[in-house]
């Protein structure tokens, strides 16, 4: 049984430091937590720059790409942020002047590579091109990855941690669009482009995600029969593509706008917008792929049932399977941003509106989930006069915070935010905004949020011993100011200085404790330990010598048995105890009486005591003769007293006789 109650005072004892559960890697000391200040990272202030995208590699380096007009045509530009020195100088990725290069996409991996893909006209058809950034610090390409007649649009790209890359797009064959794919394999290069599906209906809006280990999932919107469906195809190393399969089963009205995210846990999540019928609007649905079972059953994760529906969903998932989906949903007045959170143990939660602004619509949300499961969502928000960029943050255990604006120019409109997080706790956002100096050109802006990824300090300094001989056990320690503490899931009050204390009443036996501290950013730190309560003194039996005996030898053997693991002292001198609890030693005796005190103490500090008295006389009788110690005095009196009385009577009688004779 375990009863717990708060402790009014804390007794300071030996400090036992506890290692943090999470230590953040290096991050620049010059950066402060929270949002920074917006800075311009692209655009030349004389042309139109738009459609920014960004990706973060394993080193925390950021690559952003966008389309920018030179006054005649659009080109693809890029800029890099190396985390130590900030943003660099923008560079142009292609110089083909035959036609516009637009709608760039970017993906990066743990090795520091980044691949950008875009569509560009060759004067006849729109083609798909890719440029490669190497960790050595240079861009290579562009490389043409599509082929054949017909326009190729809407390129999407994903790169694995081994450098393999997958590009997908939709391509027109003269009668309909199909989904095409090309793959890059290190040491072999790009393969030949090929269709990813061979269905009869039109296929558009492909999306691609990689789990980082070579498994790739592509989803798209496919028209079959009389409605749109969501299809998927998966690539696995060694087995290739599995084939197109419908993933929005039990869909009576049609689905559009698919998105997909994957994690190294083997989980892939696809989301889309599904019609609820002519008068019931649309809802966001999700399906999950788990190896080896495959796709599961679709489920509604939105469900607002608003007439204007839920639209343009996005999903992000971190390396441990925490996912967040976002979308905007319309009502009779405006549109609001909503979200739902997925975890491996609980699945999807309930959708919540995270856009509290009453100034106008919130549209086009984007989301990124960091390594600890916190998520940042950004969107364009009408503030009553202009479009601005707003954000809200989700922290596990605390939920969603307060939405805020993250760009400060109150004179021009801002659009198209994109977001990505690194493993160092930094999330970067890019967007494009009108140039306040001209109002006829636009530039690329960026802001960053630096999260606190370090678990709170946690030191437990009571109890200091594992073995205790009291049923009242106080667990006490200190943590970061403002953190919350639980002991075995029991909330414990934390004082203003971070100290905490809780006392338990425990039965004898083993008791495991887990102390966890969670800071305001949602980071946790915990330690576990076991105490053993033992309030019973150890057994102690002395087999030799027998108490009260007289011995004739100057040494005596002391033997006995006690609790295994106990410590035995004879007259405060430690003696060796065997693993089974037996002990034996030889003691030297003094002439006359010898008092022996034996103690046995266990790990909890309980003590058992035995007293033995011996009488050592060198001229003693046969072995075993009772010693003349204090316990034999009564018998001695019984023997000697009659003799003394008789002797005294005889002496008295003789004296009387002698005196009588003299008197005569």
Map the helices and strands.
Elements: E1 2-6, E2 34-35, E3 39-42, E4 49-56, E5 62-69, E6 74-81, E7 91-92, E8 101-108, E9 114-121, E10 126-134, E11 138-144, E12 152-159, E13 165-172, E14 177-185, E15 189-190, E16 194-195, E17 203-210, E18 216-224, E19 227-236, E20 240-241, E21 245-246, E22 255-262, E23 267-275, E24 282-290, E25 294-295, E26 299-300, E27 310-317, E28 323-330, E29 335-343, E30 347-348, E31 352-353, E32 362-369, E33 375-382, E34 387-395, E35 399-400, E36 404-405, E37 414-421, E38 426-434, E39 442-450, E40 458-462, E41 467-468, E42 472-479, E43 484-487, E44 490-492, E45 499-506, E46 509-518, E47 524-533, E48 540-544, E49 550-551, E50 555-562, E51 567-570, E52 573-575, E53 582-588, E54 592-601, E55 607-616, H1 633-663
How does this model look, in words?
- Strand 14 and strand 15 (189-190) form a beta hairpin.
- The longest helix has 31 residues, at 633-663.
- By secondary structure, the chain is mainly beta.
- Strands 2, 3, 37, 38 and 39 form a five-stranded antiparallel β-sheet that branches. Strands 12, 13, 14, 15 and 16 form a five-stranded antiparallel β-sheet that branches. Strands 17, 18, 19, 20 and 21 form a five-stranded antiparallel β-sheet that branches.
- The protein has one helix and 55 strands.
- Mean pLDDT is 88; it is low at 8-30 and 620-636.
- Among the domains are: 2-22 and 455-533, Sandwich (Immunoglobulin-like), CATH 2.60.40; 540-628, Immunoglobulin-like; 638-664.
- Helices cover 5% and strands 52% of the residues.
